[in-house]
């Protein structure tokens, strides 16, 4: 089964978590786009959406669903998003689509984080997917040197600025044995806005599409 069909299936399973009258947080990326595409089915249940990117905001609004700010919503009962990798502990690498900072903010503000992936993204050890780090421009070389010290190979994402006007340094070659420790170490580097490692606040529920059914972890 192709990747896109798996995304549609896992997104359909995530819709089941939406309850009546809820404000929901929505992430970014192609799996999330499959979710938004199917929101018509549950639209009457959704009070409003807190969005993690300009792209998501545009798509949600195109469905005539209200988008509100986090400062208006307060805590959010449910956040739904995709990921680039997950381990068995539901610790994630995110940010392939560049929306990691707002995604991390909305995830932290949410009581339940439902993450949708296909089985190719479920790994024993995080790090095969290059770890995205959002960085304030002037700190690019500083952050890169620190990531080399941590065993990585940092590469600037070319011709790319985030929704917050920052750069992204994608770090290859990491074998992440201690995700929480690494997340804290990267957070401590001056100029780092956000690391795409979602270990301190990982997913609560991981939905994995394998082509024939959806496994829930
Ligand atoms: C965007 C993300 C996405 O959730 C992640 O990149 C997965 O994307 P896709 O669903 O397109 O595979 O973190 O910042």
Question: Can you walk through the features of this model?
Answer:
Helix content is 29%, strand content 29%. By secondary structure, it is of the alpha/beta class. The protein folds into two domains: 3-122 and 200-216, Rossmann fold (3-Layer(aba) Sandwich); 131-195, Alpha-Beta Plaits (2-Layer Sandwich), CATH 3.30.70. It has a seven-stranded mixed β-sheet, with helices on both faces. The chain has a four-stranded antiparallel β-sheet with strand order 9-10-8-11. α1 (3-15) crosses α2 (30-37). The longest helix is centred in the first third of the chain and has 13 residues, at 3-15. The radius of gyration is 17 Å and the shape is globular. 47% of the residues are buried. The model has no long low-confidence stretch (mean pLDDT 97). It binds ribulose-5-phosphate. Residues 27-31, 81-84, 94-100, 103 line the site of ribulose-5-phosphate.
Portion of residues in beta strands equals 25-35%
First-residue to last-residue Cα separation = 21 Å
Label the CATH architecture of the largest domain: 3-Layer(aba) Sandwich
* CATH fold-level assignment of the largest domain: Rossmann fold
**Got a strand count?**
14
The helix/strand series, from N terminus to C terminus, equals: HEHEHEHEEEHEEHEEHEEEE
Put simply, the count of helices is: 7
Q: Count the domains.
A: 2
- Please outline the major beta sheet: 7 strands, mixed
Give the helix level as a range of percent. Answer: 25-40%
What is the CATH class of the largest domain?
Answer: Alpha Beta
Present as ligands are:
ribulose-5-phosphate
Rg for CA atoms? 17 Å
Query: What is the overall shape?
Result: globular
